[in-house]
Amino acid sequence: MKLYYTPSACSLASHIVLNELGLKYDSETVDLKTHKTAKGEDFYKINPKGYVPVLVLDNGQMLTEGVAILTYLTDLDSSKEKADRYQQLECLVFIATELHKTISSLFGYKEAPKEIITGIKDKVAKRFDFMDKKLANREFVIGKAFGPADAYLFTVLNWCPHLGIDLGLWKNLVSFVKRIQARPAVQKTLQQEGI
Ligand SMILES: N[C@@H](CCC(=O)N[C@@H](CS)C(=O)NCC(=O)O)C(=O)O
Fold it and tell me: Which phi and psi (to 5°) does residue 86 adopt?
């Protein structure tokens, strides 16, 4: 398998899950400004959508869309019971559509009028209220073990300090980030991505 990723981007979640599961993989970084890979290839030729993450499977098939990649990787782990698979999926879709895309739109809105930025932040705040309550008295987003939703939530929460979102308002989210960050596989991934 080969993962195309950009440091700190949403591909971090897939990268974390690869390391959490101890899977063998190659990787290559992508510069999202130039859409060139580290080896100088035109990234649009690899993924016509132009975005990370991309996972190229051992049979040469290409998988895009974070939720699909995270689910594929998790399904490779036969040791895990699959009882919470649909809860994980529900949560992954929530993170992708309600958090990832809303939060990341702030990257592009740095110059936008204040009302637009405030509107986006208000929406994010409601979603964070929900996740904060969900994480009260529990270690992981779903079930009793680390799963793909934890990797993905950690990834998008990591963007907040750079976007003027004060996570300190959500104590359970803050402790979640600390907990996940301390995991050896997450530490390894952060080092690999140089962040
Ligand atoms: N729908 C895609 C979106 C992925 C996405 O937004 N990737 C961003 C980084 S977090 C990206 O590569 N953007 C560059 C671009 O769109 O050209 C997914 O969920 O995987």
Answer: -75, -30
Mean pLDDT, all residues of the chain? 94
- Site of tokens 């490779």: 76
pLDDT digits (tens, 9 = 90+) for 136-191: 999 999 989 999 999 999 999 999 999 989 999 999 999 999 999 999 999 999 99
Query: Is any atom of ligand 1 closer than 6 Å to the C-beta of 66?
Result: yes
DSSP class of residue 190? H
Residue with tokens 């600390």: 178
Superfamily of domain 2-78+185-193: Glutaredoxin (3.40.30.10)
* pTM assigned to the model: 0.96
Looking at residue 98, what DSSP letter applies? I
Rounded to the nearest 10 degrees, what angle do helices 171-181 and 184-193 cross at?
A: 80
Q: Best mutation site among 51, 71, 155 for ligand 1, i.e. most ligand atoms within 8 A of its Cβ?
A: 51
Q: Which atom from ligand 1 is nearest to the alpha carbon of 65?
A: 20
Tell me the CATH architecture of domain 85-183.
Up-down Bundle (1.20)
Kindly report the protein residue whose alpha carbon is nearest to atom 11 of ligand 1.
51
> Could you give the residue range(s) of every CATH 3.40.30.10 domain in the chain?
2-78+185-193
Tokens of 13: 């979640």
Distance 137 CA to ligand 1 centre (A): 32
- How wide is the angle at C-alpha 67 spanned by C-alphas 64 and 167, nearest 5°? 120
